[in-house]
């Protein structure tokens, strides 16, 4: 009995709070002052330099051959497992998780840079 | 994490090499995504870097790259998944991980290589196995 009373009173007390939250929420969406994922994607130059760093630091890769257009298997002489490893290294660098279908397509630096640049959550 | 270890509910039954190859890559990705957890559990921050561990996993996979039978690949994948589960659920200890996956690469394996270089092919295959 008391619990029923309590819950009904609480229900009434709680309504204004959720109202206040939605107000704050809409305010936040308008201002975006507290969003941790900014609405600007990463700067293209920064993406290019970070992706190239990841590829260059791969032990089997000759750093002097790495350009923004290099193809992993054809130009750098890596095999498919190395390709997957590079994609995983890129995932770690940019704190992403790339789904399998997309990851299979990433075969060159150019595609990797494109993908990261277009990804809204790249860190 | 989305693709951390899901226990294999359906035993892998690859029909052809393509499917087996896909499973291998899936396993490799799962292993790489578990690496931060592993480094956390066994406190490997001073001993190894994630990229080194990734390369180690890749070279372990590459050791069996010559296999042509999809069923053998399935069996190897089952063993690998079991090993990875053991590591992630802390069934091993730090010295196991360091000895098998960190030091092994530079310390022991390389030494063997240098010693064997001068020998003949016959002796190399003799040391490594029974069938040649």
Automatic annotation (TrEMBL), chain A:
A single cellular component GO annotation: mitochondrion
A Pfam entry, by short name: PP-binding
A GO molecular-function descriptor: acyl carrier activity
Transferase among keywords: no
Keywords attached to this entry: Electron transport, Fatty acid biosynthesis, Fatty acid metabolism, Lipid biosynthesis, Lipid metabolism, Mitochondrion, Phosphopantetheine, Phosphoprotein, Respiratory chain, Transit peptide, Transport
Location of the protein in the cell: Mitochondrion
PROSITE patterns (alphabetical): CARRIER
Principal cellular location given in the protein's record: mitochondrion
Superkingdom of the source species: Eukaryota
Domain Carrier: residue ranges: 45-120
NCBIfam families: acyl_carrier, PRK00982.1-2
Protein name: Acyl carrier protein
Organism, as annotated: Forsythia ovata
Species classification: Eukaryota, Viridiplantae, Streptophyta, Embryophyta, Tracheophyta
TrEMBL record, chain B:
Protein localization: Mitochondrion inner membrane
Keywords: Electron transport, Membrane, Mitochondrion, Mitochondrion inner membrane, Respiratory chain, Transport
Top-rank taxon, per record: Eukaryota
Membrane association type: Peripheral membrane protein
Gene Ontology cellular-component terms listed: mitochondrial inner membrane
Leader sequence residues: none
Keyword Metal-binding (UniProt): no
Name under which the protein is recorded: NADH dehydrogenase [ubiquinone] 1 alpha subcomplex subunit 6
Species name: Forsythia ovata
């Amino acid at each position: 009995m008391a619990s029923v009373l309590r819950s009904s009173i609480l229900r009434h007390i709680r309504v204004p709070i959720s109202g206040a939250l939605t107000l704050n929420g809409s305010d936040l969406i308008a201002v975006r002052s507290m969003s941790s994922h900014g609405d600007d994607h990463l700067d293209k130059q920064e993406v290019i330099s970070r992706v190239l760093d990841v590829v260059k630091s791969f032990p089997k890769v000759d750093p002097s051959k790495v350009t923004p257009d290099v193809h992993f298997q054809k130009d750098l002489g890596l095999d498919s497992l190395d390709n997957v490893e590079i994609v995983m290294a890129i995932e770690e660098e940019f704190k992403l998780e790339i789904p399998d279908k997309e990851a299979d397509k990433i075969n060159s630096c150019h595609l990797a840079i494109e993908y990261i640049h277009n990804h809204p959550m790249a860190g | 994490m989305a693709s951390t270890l899901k226990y294999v509910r359906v035993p892998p039954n690859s029909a052809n090499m393509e499917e087996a190859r896909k499973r291998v890559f899936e396993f490799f990705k799962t292993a790489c995504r578990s690496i931060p957890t592993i480094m956390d559990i066994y406190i490997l921050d001073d001993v190894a870097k994630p990229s080194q561990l990734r390369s180690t996993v890749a070279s372990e996979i590459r050791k069996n790259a010559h296999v042509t039978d999809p069923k053998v690949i399935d069996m190897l994948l089952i063993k690998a998944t079991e090993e990875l589960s053991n590591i992630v659920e802390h069934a091993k200890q730090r010295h196991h991980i360091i000895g098998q996956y960190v030091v092994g690469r530079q310390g022991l394996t390389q030494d063997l290589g240098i010693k064997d270089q001068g020998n003949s092919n016959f002796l190399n295959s003799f040391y490594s196995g029974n069938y040649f």
